[in-house]
Amino acid sequence: MALDNQDLLFASLMGSRAVNLIQNTNVINNDLASKVLPVIPFVPVKNNPNNVVIKPGRAINAEGNWTTNDNVEEQKQFFPLSFSFTENGERWLFPYEPMINITSGNNIIKRNVAKQGDNLIGTIKERWSRKDFEITVTGVLIGSIMQGKPQDCFPASQFSMLFDFLRHKKEIYIYCHPLELLSIYRVVVEDYSFPFTKGENVQAYELKLTSDYSYELLVKDELDV
Description:
It is built from six helices and eleven strands. The protein is an alpha+beta fold. It has two domains: 1-55, no CATH class; 69-213, Elongation Factor Tu (Ef-tu), domain 3 (Beta Barrel).
């Protein structure tokens, strides 16, 4: 099965091991796409007609450069992710569905009991609280023209909009179905990186986010007069 330049680009982003599984992944991806899941743009495979309708995704522009779509519609993403500066403000949709990893746990205060005997095993757990949710978002921004001048190829508008959220000095509102199930609607940006990425029109990113909640730290006692 042949790979074109765009497929090789996605393969380089996902790692060399993905290339060895192209044939098996192609069969699985086509079967899933015909039943439930949409085609994931990260998977470096070209769909063959296995009950799947193929639509051309690229064209040649007037200068002979390859072009492609610079975003995927929200309805065609499985778990679309959006940012907003305010709770009811305008949302910015990530142009390509990113990969999201979520981790958390519990803070537990433990005490070792001296001379605990055979019936007391381990530590005494005195108190615990829940940790923040740590969210890692990994994805790519893709310009519409694959080769040419930087101002034409590089996804500058997407890059600038994402960076506006990353440098925001307050919490940002986040919208994604798995996060909503965990009651995560606000996050703060801990770290972010834009690693070197192959492709003149492609820029990868990795975001480190932490969940944020509202707390009433001051409690006012109401006394009956």
